[in-house]
Amino acid sequence: MNVSFEGIGHVSATFATDITQVDTVCKMTANGKVAACEDGGTFCGKVESIRKGFAGVQLHGFTQVHFTGTAPHLGYAILTADGKGGVKTHTQGRSYLVVSVDDTAKTAIIEL
Predict the structure, then answer these.
(1) Parallel, antiparallel, or unpaired for β 107-111 and 94-102?
(2) Comparing 98 with 5, which gets the higher pLDDT?
(3) Which residues lie below 8 Å from residue 1, measured CB to CB, with a gap of 6+?
(4) CA 112, CA 1: separation in Å to the nearest integer?
(5) Angle at 13 between CA 30 and CA 64, to 5 degrees
(6) CB-side exposure of 23: number of CA atoms within 13 Å?
(7) CB 59 within 8 A of CB 15
(8) In the chain, how many H helices and how many E strands?
(9) 63 forms bridges with which residues in the sheet?
(10) pLDDT by residue (tens digit) across 39-85?
(11) Of 45, 53, 98, nearest to 36 (Cα)?
């Protein structure tokens, strides 16, 4: 039996956006609006869908993210945006629970 974190604690909301790619971590930029994060920026969620200038953004729960650089360690790790839609480990910022890491695919499952 495989372990699955899919759907646990999932909360999402719709925001206005100029983001054009799903699976991108994002940040709040104005009332009801999100944008892609700059390198080293703090992210609030991950874009799940885009339609006509609006994005469905996952704000809580477990989700898979792409990472660059050193793989995050399991447990609580400080992560920031990598400026390319994914995340990277950092020495300062917000701590996220990392429950799975795939070094080959460069993905991790984190709790937002």
Answers:
(1) antiparallel
(2) 98
(3) none
(4) 25
(5) 105
(6) 9
(7) no
(8) 0, 10
(9) 110
(10) 999 999 999 999 999 999 999 999 999 999 999 999 999 999 999 99
(11) 45
